[in-house]
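hiii so my PI (J.) wants the whole complex modelled not just the main chain, which honestly fair. so below is everything: two entries, each one labled with what it is. i double checked the lines twice but i was tired so who knows lol
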Amino acid sequence: MFKKSILTAALLMVTVVAAHAEKVHVDSKIKKYTTAAGVAGNLNSIGSDSLNNLMTYWAEGFKKKYPNVNIQIEGKGSSTAPPALIAGTAQLGPMSREMKSSEIEEFEKKYGFKPTKIGVALDSLAVFVNKDNHIKSLSLDKVDAIFSKTHKRGGVDVTTWGELGVTGKLASMPISLYGRNSASGTYGYFKEHALNKGDFKNSVKEQPGSASVVEGVAKDIGAIGYSGIGYATSGVRAVPLSAKEGGKVAEATYANVLNGSYPMSRMLYIYVAKKPGQPLPKVVEEFLRYALSKEGQEIVVKDGYDPLTAKLVDDQLKALK
Amino acid sequence: MAKNFIDKSRRNDRIAEVFIRIGGILVIVSVIWILVMISRVALPLFYQPSAKIAATVKLPAAISAGKVLAVGSEENQQGVFVLDETGTFHFISVADGSISASIKAPSIPVGAARVVSAECLGKSAYNLLWDNGAISSVMVILAAAKDPEGKISFSHDVTSQSEQSFTATSGVVQSFARPIEGKGAVRIDRLADDHLRVTHQLLEKDLLGNEKRSTASAEISEPLPGRLSTVAVDTKGHYLYAGTENGMLLRWDISEPGQVRLLDSVQASRDRQPITSLALVLGDVSIAVGDAKGTLTTWFPVKETGSGEDRRLTSIHTLRPNSGAISAIIPSPRDKTLLSINSAEIHADHMTSERNLLTIKTASPITLAALSPKGNSLSALDSNRSLNVWKLDIPHPEVSFSTLFGRVWYEGYDKPEYSWQSSAANDDFEPKLSLVPLVFGTIKATFFAMLFAAPLALLAALYTSQFMSPKLKGRVKPVVEIMAAIPSVVIGFLAGLWLAPLIDKSVLTIFLTIVIVPLMLLVTIFFWKRIKTASLLQRITRGHEFVAMIPVVILGIYIAYLLSGVAEVSLFSGDFKQWLYSSLGIRYDQRNSIIIAIALGFAVIPIIFTIAEDAISNVPRNLNAASLALGASRWQTAWRVVLPSALPGVFSAIMIGFGRAIGETMIVLMATGNTPIMSWSLFNGLRSLSANIAVEIPEAPLNSSLYRVLFLSAVLLFIFTFIINTVAESLRQRFRKKYGRY
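here's the output for the full assembly
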């Protein structure tokens, strides 16, 4: 783990500013957090590294409200959450993807009921190109043709920018591919949704963090890469996407994520073990209520992700009941 | 006094000897211990699968009356269930063979009396076809739990899944029903006279929540190449497959409501043997085909050369043949394992690895069989009406020698390949665990790094020890040694984010520098004597000559830079990288092997330099002096006398550098793109064994195949280094005998 932490430190050096393109406001209909009585005890969270910062910020805010609560947070990756929930070593399992059916089965085998997933934030994955690349938009079909060697969406292999309609110097340049390493939830999400469960080309350069994907694209004129929109810098440009070739093109704005026209957005979750008909332990419930409050969602914006709407928050709160 | 002193020093010697021995033994023990620990994690990859019979129960008399249509078991092999003609699920405890519950299927369609056939959909859902042609869909839940006293209690339930139910229709022999996500369902009927009919039952919701129902139906009209023998449909209801009695395999696209389109019609068995069973392998890409001779093959559509977009069904894997006609194929709900059943045996084979996992002999022919939802429990009903339950233990079916080191034709690929792509977010993914690209990457990185580092470091060592003034040498050596102290993560980081873009801009300059700088040096040396006497250079004393060379090198680089601009415009139409790509078809990747060679070389140079310099400096001065006194020049002395004597040490310097380069992780991880490409081109990246372990181990699920394969690759790396070191050491000993006699 030592090496990993060096790695993270090195990557932090790159992420000088993870600036969000537009200012997102939290839905004013989301209620402020009201403190409850008798909240104390230990809270453990094991899971996603995309959600690690967010969990830490929430824990800080939560501890200010309840000084008697002890919170430990470990973020090694989404796949560490289900085993931790099953073994009971964590009450919260943050995940950047939904549980696989095999993980749900394991959980059910132990508890006899299904895990409850609570959506806590929205995240959009962006396809980045170098800032000097003037490509107007891409469809996911084309993205598949660029990144995949199996072409599950049925396209023909694309290797140069000219084949995507880019003119000028770039036209005859080969496309240089950047992506995340296979351990990350982003890699899995992209593979499942953009490549339709196909396989990446061998020439996709796997980078150890989202920041180095963006940095790589910024330094390589013929590059294309994917990562969370929160990592965008001035050296790259997020390409507007459409789901199908010739379909409606949408930019990765908050409005487009909400109306569903941006095809690459996902929910980030916290999984909990909640017995149907019974309330969660007080401290767990209050933590989730805090994350879903106005304060909690403002932290989401601060961390570069997109907040939930009032309606989504209500749906999540219902699942908590 | 003197005696005392001798005693004391002898005692000290003994103590030191004991300590050194203990230390040495500890090192050896811990190295072996590490190897044993790593191997122990990797070893279960090669454990043999096993099938243990957990129970054999005679069907209770109450059920014996009617025909049994489906069987199933729960994953602890404690409970089984059977479905009879009346649509009742009987749950049986295997301990005493008693019926613990009988539950009638809910929501039986109007006018239906008897179940004709039942189709198991993967996990625990069943489609029941009733005698009037109606279909209902049910979900069966059976779980066994042990309470603290060891008593086993069952929970069971049968629930209805209404979205897949269809109303009565006549003349149906066999039926399939599939839900279409959010849009209704589709049923595929095999009618009495070898006709196939596809009916979509669509359900559309508008914004106001109104439901609109419509149906669209299509019949396969074209004449079939032979009499239908078996039919299969994928889980999404997109493709329909059929086998005929003369061995043809057909595939239709049925994803559009009201339309069927024949995609394929291929001969799928040898000698026109009838196809006896079809089943889709988990993931719905491959179809397994069993014929009357017992041949078991898997097929999927592959792009044909020259036909553009069209994909045609192609035979991919041939699994171990059965001894007789295959009566049924059961795909595992967890991985790409296939169970095939003939009259005397049950075979378990894994598709990707083509491994025959298990062969279970059965006393009497099996008529019905099913796997539990986790795929670890097999229940089968034989012709004697007794139910057998096996506990299957198949630890790592996808790993075999051929998948690790051979070319494998993976699903969706156009040809067999060496490929590393270990994980995905979905369960039905086919892991690609070939170690070949990784071993290749390791060798490539090491080779290029040594090509860059070894000559530089050795020549530098020779110059420093033989030609440089001792005072300067005392400064240069520590500076180079400090290079070794730079953390590799920093080198990797700089190489990836600073050096890579820099070289990207000036590839041609670098190539020209390699040619021009040595050329310029030669020219300068040729005129050295004349220049030396003619100018200020006279003041440069012996041992400082290289100072005069610094401007030459800088000038050389500058000329290379100027020339590259000219050459790029005149020879490579303005852009060298573009020219590489369009004329030679070589892709220039920013994170390429040049970067690795330089970055990894940077890490290796100080090690080789220091050890080699020490070895050369340790050659006795009297040899040197003798050689010079006999009239040999300085160069002759260094090259012919000193270097051969120092050869064993120089050689071990190279080997230690080599070992460092093989195992280096962070530089390779950060400076390459970790692309598992197998090409010797200087202009693309690589993925090494060590970087791969660092990238993948944090999230490899504990004890999964991937986890163990990563440990296996660690063992491989260990063996690599071990062999190299052993060879190096034995060669060094030989060199010492040959050259080190002074």
